[in-house]
Amino acid sequence: MAIDLKAPPAASRDLADLVRADRAHTSLYTDPAIFEQEMDRIFASCWVWVAHVSEVKEAGDYKSTYVGRQPVVVVRDRKQKIHVLLNRCRHRAATVCEEKKGRTNSFVCPYHGWSYGLDGSLRGVPHPESYGQCLDKGEYPLKSLRVEEYAGMVFATFREDIEPLADWLGPAKKWMDLFMKQGGGYPIKVAGEHRFRFPGNWKIQLENTTDGYHFPVVHKSFLSSVDEQTERMLDFVNGPGFVEDLGNGHSVMVMIPELVDLEENLDAPVPARFAELAEELRKEGHDEAKVRRIVRAVGGSGFNLNLFPNIACSMAFFRVLRPVSVNETEIHHAVITMDGGPAAANRARLRLHEHFQGPMGFGTPDDSEAWERVQKGAQAGTDLWILLNRGLPGERVTEDGRAGDVSAETGMRAAYQQWKKLMTGRG
Amino acid sequence: MNTQLLTEVSAFLWQEADMLDHHDYQDWLAQWTADGLYIVPIDPDVASGPADLADRLNYAYDDADMRAKRVARLTSGESVSTQPASRTVRSLSRFRILADDGAAITVRAAQHLREFRKETLRDYTADVTYELARTGDGFRLKSKIVRLVNSTDALHSIGYIL
Ligand code: FES
Ligand SMILES: [Fe+2]
């Protein structure tokens, strides 16, 4: 069959024709009109991750973030219910919260002083006399999104008519459960994050989470900085791992099958890089079983789980993406620690995170450079396609979807098929 | 005010700054004590020292081993984000001696750094606190904490040593 390499001209583009089984059109990275539609048909129309429960642990704890481009506040009320509220005063639209996180009793608008409860209800309006009978406070709460959570992950949506979160996640749920085992017996906690921006489209980052192919190339300098055993472990591209399409745009890339379940193989030898930590934990008086469990959990899971559209459970951290514009994306790499766990283990996790992530890490800057180059290159050959056909011939049907080898572009194909479904309203 | 000490300290720190801008990394590595820590925190809390920062997420928290690895990475040619390397010029000023216990001096300074790479000129302004150990052979860096004024913002890659 002859492959049609010519894309339709911009004016007559049918969105459905921009994503094919083995490729996506370059305009998906560059067309501002497509970006606007994505904000509406994807970010305002499906479940979007907003927080991990540890970020709003106690009543009054809040975090400000975004759903798509819309600023929201995630807050726990006194009845322990988590609310996701539009960060927009109902009077004349000022934001009611500018802090990234904190604890409060209420949100008071700085402009004219309207105050809102933790559930978003409008509590007080200064000098109400002038309103006479024309302002019913019950009608003007902060606008509230629908909120559901699974495995400590809090998601919100503008839509009342979409499926429950658990159905949306589907087979991804069991991978989320596996991922949370890196608490090593403790609840996991988000203990800070690296934030950075790159001048490129959000889907470039989305693709990367299940891109095993780039690892040995882009991360050569990182691989040169780790011990031999770790380097061998990370040499997974020709290994037995796999990428699986889990439906609804979600996918998992298993790089190190041995580290899928962190509660198994507890008798395996302690890796060289954690020998010192194990010794420290023994000295602190932890029994051998506990030492093994913590040390096995400390390096994170052997897989990346990509949840469409904005969150990934990536080895040892959460990757959050926020689309800013068609050619700008903000990324947060949130570090995970063991809540109440040994300080030595948590310090090890923090140092591992700093080693790879962040603007001064040995990994992220090189990823970021590659993504910038994609956006720049995508300005050329605007009629060309982004190829997504790697690993296609070897793909097999699985219980949960389809799977390809560990460097297959199966995860990207999954994401783009979901993109097409949401953008066109067609299956 | 001990202007003699201030002169000695600033001469040492200006030399360190010059080494970094000119990529004299082996000389730079040699000026540290064996237990020295190079830290670039996210947390804007100025009261936190190396021990507090050990339990928090930072941009960098480098002991001797990580410093050597950082230098190796920057000079390896293996990292696409440092090819080409950034060109930097930094100036240090506003030195103030905060403490001097005989064995070590704590000094704080203002650092303005401009970076150019590919098509972009960037600014990084930081408050830097140093602990300088007195040795028979002059000062050695015992700790250097670089507090970027915009540490809590979303940053771009920093492919050099602040
Ligand atoms: S805009 Fe909030 S009180 Fe007026
Ligand atoms: Fe990467």
From TrEMBL, chain A:
Domain of life, source organism = Bacteria
**Which key words tag this protein in UniProt?**
2Fe-2S, Iron, Iron-sulfur, Metal-binding, NAD, Oxidoreductase
User: Rieske domain location, by residue?
Assistant: 47-156
Kindly give the Pfam families that the UniProt entry links to this protein.
Answer: Rieske, Ring_hydroxyl_A
Q: What GO molecular functions are on record for this protein? A: 2 iron, 2 sulfur cluster binding; iron ion binding; oxidoreductase activity
Q: Which positions, given as ranges, span the membrane?
A: none
Q: Which cofactor does it need?
A: Fe cation
Concerning InterPro entries, the annotation shows: ARHD_Rieske_2Fe_2S, Rieske_2Fe-2S, Rieske_2Fe-2S_sf, Ring_hydroxy_dOase_asu_C_dom, Rng_hydr_dOase-A
Recorded hits in PANTHER family, A to Z, give:
CHOLINE MONOOXYGENASE, CHLOROPLASTIC
This chain belongs to which protein, by name?
Rieske 2Fe-2S domain-containing protein
- The species this protein was found in: Azospirillum lipoferum
Top-down, what is the taxonomic lineage of the species of origin? Bacteria, Pseudomonadati, Pseudomonadota, Alphaproteobacteria, Rhodospirillales
From TrEMBL, chain B:
Highest rank taxon of the organism = Bacteria
Supply one GO BP term: 3-phenylpropionate catabolic process
Please verify whether the record's keywords include Lipid biosynthesis: no
Q: Name the keywords, alphabetized.
A: Dioxygenase, Oxidoreductase
Q: Which InterPro entries match?
A: NTF2-like_dom_sf (IPR032710), Rng_hydr_dOase-bsu (IPR000391)
Q: Which Pfam families match?
A: Ring_hydroxyl_B
Which SUPFAM superfamilies does the protein's record reference?
A: NTF2-like (SSF54427)
Q: Which GO terms describe its molecular function?
A: dioxygenase activity
Task: Give the family from UniProt.
Answer: Belongs to the bacterial ring-hydroxylating dioxygenase beta subunit family.
Enumerate the PANTHER family for this protein: 3-PHENYLPROPIONATE_CINNAMIC ACID DIOXYGENASE SUBUNIT BETA, BLR3401 PROTEIN
Record's protein name: Aromatic-ring-hydroxylating dioxygenase subunit beta
Source organism of the structure: Azospirillum lipoferum
Top-down, what is the taxonomic lineage of the species of origin? Bacteria, Pseudomonadati, Pseudomonadota, Alphaproteobacteria, Rhodospirillales
